[in-house]
């Protein structure tokens, strides 16, 4: 069983990570997912669609640009993600972007802000999944303003 890159449990029935590959499907099957939320620039992998269809998992794709030293999500995108992530009928859910770091991280920080976590706590959680070990100022400002 191989979890997706940067896989993590956000809370019961809510998971996060990178784009699932075929080698991750057995692991994801064990999570008994109802929804996979894909925050990606395009819809390129038919294998993930086939997996979702075979497992009766709803796949929601929300297009976002690839991160490039700026925030690629908008308030509307984050609001849509939060509505899905807080809907019990959609859980268990796996939320992913391409690498499981920046885009997913910003969305999860916004969830934590909604849950009234302290800034230092949600930033520390973000950093556990961040490849460069830092939060760029645009990401911090976005979450603060959200």
UniProtKB/TrEMBL annotation:
Pfam families in alphabetical order: Y_phosphatase2
The name this protein goes by in its record: Protein-tyrosine phosphatase
Source organism of this protein record: Linderina pennispora
Organism superkingdom: Eukaryota
GO MF annotations in UniProt: phosphatase activity
């Amino acid at each position: 069983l191989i979890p997706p890159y940067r896989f993590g449990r956000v809370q019961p029935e809510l998971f996060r990570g990178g784009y699932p590959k075929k080698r991750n499907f057995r692991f994801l099957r064990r999570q008994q997912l109802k929804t996979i939320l894909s925050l990606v620039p395009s819809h390129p992998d038919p294998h993930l669609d086939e997996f979702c269809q075979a497992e009766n998992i709803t796949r929601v794709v929300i297009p976002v640009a690839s991160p490039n030293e700026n925030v690629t999500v908008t308030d509307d995108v984050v609001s849509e993600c939060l509505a899905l992530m807080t809907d019990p009928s959609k859980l268990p859910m796996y939320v992913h972007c391409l690498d499981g770091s920046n885009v997913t991280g910003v969305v999860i920080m916004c969830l934590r802000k909604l849950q009234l976590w302290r800034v230092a706590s949600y930033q520390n959680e973000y950093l556990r999944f961040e490849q460069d070990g830092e939060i760029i100022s645009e990401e911090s400002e976005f979450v603060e303003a959200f």
